[in-house]
Specification:
Helix content is about 80%, strand content about 0%. By secondary structure, the protein is mainly alpha-helical.
């Protein structure tokens, strides 16, 4: 996408190729940005899930402890 060769050696062909190669570079930059954005969103979702599961696990442990020891204030 960034190494297009001109079909001829005239001014119009050279100008077209220059713009086509620049467009290819811009597109690859755009794709890289979107890849990084998606990876960051996946990381944030994983962190949220990990936090949720950690809280859920602590809650289950607290409920199980409360059931075994009878009523406890604050639970």
């Amino acid at each position: 996408m960034m190494q297009i060769l001109p079909p001829a050696e005239d001014i119009a062909s050279e100008a077209f190729i220059s713009q086509a190669n620049e467009s290819g570079r811009s597109y690859l930059t755009y794709l890289g940005h979107n890849r990084d954005y998606c990876l960051e969103q996946a990381r944030l979702c994983q962190n949220a899930l990990d936090d949720y599961l950690g809280i859920e696990e602590r809650t289950v442990i607290a409920v199980n402890d409360a059931a075994e020891g009878g009523p406890q204030p604050g639970l």
